[in-house]
Amino acid sequence: MRIALIVNRLSGSGRTDGDRIRTLLTERGADVHVVGIDELDRPLPEVKRLVVAGGDGSIGVAARAADRVGVPLAVLATGTANDFATALGLPKDLDGGCDLAADPGAATQRREVGVVDGHPFVNAAAAGLSAVASRLAKPHKARLGRFAYAFGAVRAGLSAPHTPCRVRCDGEAVFAGDAWQVVVAVSGAFGGGSNIGGTRHDDDHLDVAVVPAGSRLALVRHGYHMRRAMLTQQDNVPHHRGHEIEVELPPGTEFNVDGDLRAFDPARFTLLDGGVEVVVPPGRGAVDDPAAGSRGAPDAS
User: Fold this and answer.
1) β-pairing, 194-195 with 189-190?
2) CA 34, CA 7: separation in Å to the nearest integer?
3) Element containing residue 27 per DSSP (H, E)
4) Per residue in 225-276, pLDDT tens?
5) Regarding the domain with residue range 2-112+274-280, which homologous superfamily does it belong to in the CATH classification?
6) Is-contact 30 229, C-beta < 8 A?
7) Whole-model pTM?
């Protein structure tokens, strides 16, 4: 099987070894063509599958390229947090990931891909405490790995301020006020193991959840529910679904978009038409995310 291998060598604090990955895939019978992540907007070689080795921030760009050429995407979890791989139950070890990526008979699952200001993402875009936590975690990723996000989250919860926020869902105002955090979600996974819960991968809707400003002590409870993918089940957390989400924040406010910090003005979120087929382990082809919380239940918004 001919595949295009996309390697982000900076993922996982620069630990991604593209040469080793190419060797592992070749040993499993794949005909591998290496493509730089900065080359994905150019014409790609004719292949049967795209394989991306990188962190969560690399997957959205690769997913858009896979959708454009009409082939499935396989993901090798070589980043720091690997939230997308966790949400889909993908192998975390490189050998297991390459076994799945090079298997021509592997199952696929259609996954939605979010877009904000032309930038694709597969997990979540979060403003407020999550963006502050990501900035605080960055210097510690090489030493602490995914636990750097927990370190950043604790520091952000103790010191970061809330922010004024307005949210519109398909043109309807659904929140206006101060918020600790607002999350626009696809898979709903973010922050090295957290998940808002209640999302679906197949309903062609984005989810948005807002943690309204309140006491810092209440943030401990919200943090607990995010770790258990139950945030959207909380009565005081507005949760809505729509085709288009607009978030208005003070100018320059950053979003943590699949681990990358970006500012948008305005912040308008939509979905990539059709999404992308992602290679998944056996038995996962038609299964919802494992960390979906109350997935399938009526929307309480």
Assistant:
1) antiparallel
2) 8
3) helix 18-27
4) 777 889 899 889 999 999 999 999 999 999 999 988 899 988 999 999 999 9
5) Probable inorganic polyphosphate/atp-NAD kinase; domain 1 (3.40.50.10330)
6) no
7) 0.84
